[in-house]
Amino acid sequence: MKFQGLYFIFCVNFSSNGKYVISYSMEKITRLWDIGIGKQIQTFEDHSNYVRSVQYSSDDQTIGLCDLQSGHSNIVSYATFFPDNKYIASCSYDKTIRIWNVESGVRLKILKGHSYIVAYVTYFPDGQSIVSCSKDKTIRLWNVKNGKRNTKI
């Protein structure tokens, strides 16, 4: 399937049920596509910065958009939902990982320890730990509850 008439696309993601695709393009527009009919069904156009990551919550009820600097002091590399869909972890060129409450938008924790850009963050299925990787050539495991680093690889 090919979606036509778009500008350069930065990021794309499937819904967990496989019925929809969300995309973000250079014109600062997020588009929701119905795969069954191959057509755009909704747009979101009020972005002040470029979006680097689009994610669905595991229940497909929430779409997470990670703009290039939301809540960080530099570009956001990636963001992901926790398994319970109540929290988002984001990582950044500012060398930090931040944990956010989805409903309130409040930052709950800042995890520090990397000495260079944090490129990616993801969670363990139990939602109690996250793993991050950085351009400082390390992988770090973090305890979400206390914000402490468990392991450095």
TrEMBL record:
InterPro entries: WD40/YVTN_repeat-like_dom_sf (IPR015943), WD40_PAC1 (IPR020472), WD40_repeat_CS (IPR019775), WD40_repeat_dom_sf (IPR036322), WD40_rpt (IPR001680). Coiled coil: none annotated. WD repeats lie at residues 9-43, 69-110, 111-152. Keywords: Repeat, WD repeat. It comes from the Eukaryota. This is WD repeat-containing protein. It comes from Reticulomyxa filosa.
